[in-house]
Design a protein that fits this description.
24% of the residues lie in helices and 24% in strands. With 286 residues, the chain is of the alpha/beta class. It has a single domain, classed as Alpha/Beta hydrolase fold, catalytic domain (Rossmann fold, 3-Layer(aba) Sandwich), CATH 3.40.50. The strands form two sheets. The chain has a ten-stranded mixed β-sheet, sandwiched between helices. A hairpin with a 6-residue loop joins strand 2 and strand 3. The chain is globular, with a radius of gyration of 17 Å. The chain starts with a strand and ends with a strand.
């Protein structure tokens, strides 16, 4: 028997939080839907609307929500774009939940994906590429991704957006020790006005020489500091903005083997910079 599943159309979704009155608006995409499943009740699953028509298994992306508490639809614009690029994306927290999250929830997603992919009764049977997985997250959720990614060998790459580990550690479970065991990692920030900029700068400087990393900044200083200025990047811009474009390029490189995308992120070639002068990139240990 299949698990009980609740589907939601992406069109016209608007969610207002109590955090500075911020409004999130998910896009109208006919090719993406989000849903909940009793087998993973504390998460939100973003998938192709025509899952049955998928012939090439989808790499899996687990997402850590901002504040380690925002709902699973809090950056639906951005996550739908990732999904539409050929991924199964699972966000911590159910669509409207604001419960505190943890890095363990990202690992739960990976465990769940493996079980579903192997279950003939699951709609995801042989639809998922569980050999190619990424952890991503924003702000506190990025710290969860860094912490979980450092400790689970199944993780191929981590993308931490508007995030960086505090010297004191603790938030999102992350400590500076996580830098020692990371897979290939991308820090993405909104420039000097991003409140996580100093922490990301420190992380990049402190990773050991056997960890391959990139620190990319898309300068949004004109949006100011604070939680919903440069720190929020382009997550809620139309189609996820430059953060979505760069994330897909990185994921396609690491999870789909499109190695030509590496030149987008190397500081001596920086394809991102050639496309948009707001980008600056530092890279090392490649």
């Amino acid at each position: 028997m299949l698990n009980k599943r609740a589907r939601y159309p992406l069109a016209g979704l608007i969610f207002s939080t109590s955090l500075a009155g911020c409004v999130y608006d998910a896009p109208s995409r006919d090719d993406v839907e989000y849903l909940t499943d009793d087998s993973l009740p504390s998460h939100t699953i973003y998938q192709p609307a025509d899952l049955d028509g998928i012939e090439t298994p989808l790499p899996v992306v687990a997402w850590g929500v901002g504040g380690c508490t925002l709902p699973g639809v809090s950056v639906g614009v951005f996550l739908a774009e990732i999904t539409a690029a050929g991924y199964l994306v699972v966000s911590n927290n159910s669509p409207w939940s604001t419960f505190p999250t943890s890095s363990d929830m990202l690992i739960e997603t990976l465990d769940w994906a493996e079980i579903q992919n192997a279950d003939p009764d699951s709609p995801y049977f042989r639809k998922l590429d569980t050999e190619n997985v990424a952890l991503m997250g924003h702000s506190c959720g990025g710290l969860e991704a860094l912490h979980a990614g450092a400790g689970d060998p199944r993780v191929d790459t981590v993308i931490a957006l508007g995030s960086g580990i505090f010297d004191s550690g603790g938030l999102g479970g992350a400590t500076k020790d996580d830098l020692l065991t990371l897979p290939n990692t991308l820090w993405m920030n909104g420039g000097p006005e991003d409140i996580a900029y100093p922490q990301a700068e420190s992380d990049y400087a402190e990773v050991p020489d056997y960890v391959s990393v990139v620190w990319a900044n898309y300068d949004l200083s004109e949006r100011g500091s604070g939680l919903f200025g440069a720190h929020n990047g382009t997550l809620n811009d139309e189609a996820g903005g430059e953060y979505a474009r760069a994330s897909i390029l990185w994921l396609d490189w690491h999870l789909k083997g499109i190695n030509a995308n590496q030149s987008q992120f190397m500081q001596d070639t920086c394809g991102l910079c050639a496309t948009d002068s707001k980008w600056s990139v530092q890279s090392k240990n490649w």
